[in-house]
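hiii, so i know i said id send this last week but things got crazy w the move. better late than never?? heres the sequnce for the chain we talked about at the cafe, plus the structure i predicted for it. fair warning i was half asleep when i ran it
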Amino acid sequence: MEKFPENKFFTYAEMVNYTEESILNCIIIENDAGTITLFAFGEGQSLSMHTAPYDTLVHALEGEGEFTVGEKVHKLKKTMDSLCLPIFPML
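okay and structure toks below
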């Protein structure tokens, strides 16, 4: 897991290096208030079901994806779509 260097201006897009075989996972901020982590998924990649100790914000830089929360499937279909998820088991 890569940790982003502090005190540096950046755009999320410049942090993304897609690969077909893996998921990029880069911590941007981690402290007692929560964590901001950048994920980049290749086509067909996914995370297993898990819980998060904080609310979750999903933001699509490009492409599209699905997120399942409980029984509900949420789809991000456009670049720059955002989805705020409460603390809940998610996939």
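btw Strands lie at 2-3, 23-31, 34-41, 56-59, 65-69, 72-76, 82-85. thought thatd interest u
miss u guys!!
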